[in-house]
Amino acid sequence: MRSLFLLAVLVAPRLGAAQVAENPRNTWTDHRYPALWYSSIDGFWVGGHYDWSSAIGFAERPEPTYARIALDAGASTAGSYSVILDAQAPAYWEGWRFGLALYGIRANRLGYYGLGNSTTFDTDSTVGRSYFYQVSRKTRGVRATIQRRITGPLRVLVGGSLDHTDFRELPGGSVFQHDVADGTITPDEVPFNDAVFRAGVVLDRRDLELDPHRGILAEALYASGNGYTRTTASLRGYVHPLRRLVLAGRVAGESMSGSPPISAQFTFESSDRPFNAMGGYRSLRGYHDGRYLGPGKLLGGVEARYGVLWSPRVLEVKLLAFYDVGRVFAPGESVRLTTEGLHSAWGGGVGLAMLRNTVFTFAVGKGAEGTEVTFAGSWSY
Predict the structure, then answer these.
(1) pLDDT tens digits for 233-260?
(2) Domain assignment present for 381
(3) 8 Å CB contact between 380 and 326
């Protein structure tokens, strides 16, 4: 009996270790580090990152992790701040994807040039009024998403979000202040409480989600908010014609009906999370965040990424060159594929991809009104 007990004591830990090895989802590690970055809009940012994740390692899967809980917080010298608690489980339960995010964000130098695709920028207007084309936006909210694989790369999506968005006029007079005074922006829009239901279909054939080398990502989404609806379609493609070269392209459009508030018109929906459009790193690089504003949006772009250091899925340092186009459409105007009225920007930079779950980029974009510099934790698309 004593021998059997000793055998059990010796064998049990090995059985447990074997079970953990057989199921890597049970292995969780944490990471923490400080962060320092810069953008030409917000100046220097100081922050920190913490995450607790179940790593996929070198398994042949596209997801960055089985699951991950992350906290990111930072503040900028321009008065912006961001606190995001994000829990994602893209592969923890086979065939299902779950996401939940809580956030409090202030964009203290968000662009506001008025409504429409032909709003102008006059440098003389900023003399003595540094914030003439800017406004401060504060958003607090929660966003949840569930996706279910139907077959192969095809998934269906349902989700919802609750948001409270408020705007604050900056000192010295501004376009935003003028539009509030003349009723272009109504009192019902500032502040605005929004409850949004989302549903859609996602076709995802990317080889890696955070740093794709080949494949496509197509999305068709519908959302219903407080007094408005939103329909979004997008297509991204990636090809790998040469060993160190990846070519990426994107086209996307969005239409809003009803009475969309100013806060909703600032964003472009996606299966992951909404982003600023039209203008900014995720939509039209080389233009200020929120440069063009309207209920309808069209954007496109091409990008070349060439690896100067090339060890796929371990470490890649890439030079990038891009060309972006985009425009907005007025209320009642149909969103369509067109070359008319497109604003364009071009530029380049460098990107760093480590393993399957970390990407950093530095990009400089040149538009018709100047240059924007951005550090980011992802590719633009």
Answers:
(1) 999 999 999 999 999 999 999 999 999 9
(2) no
(3) no
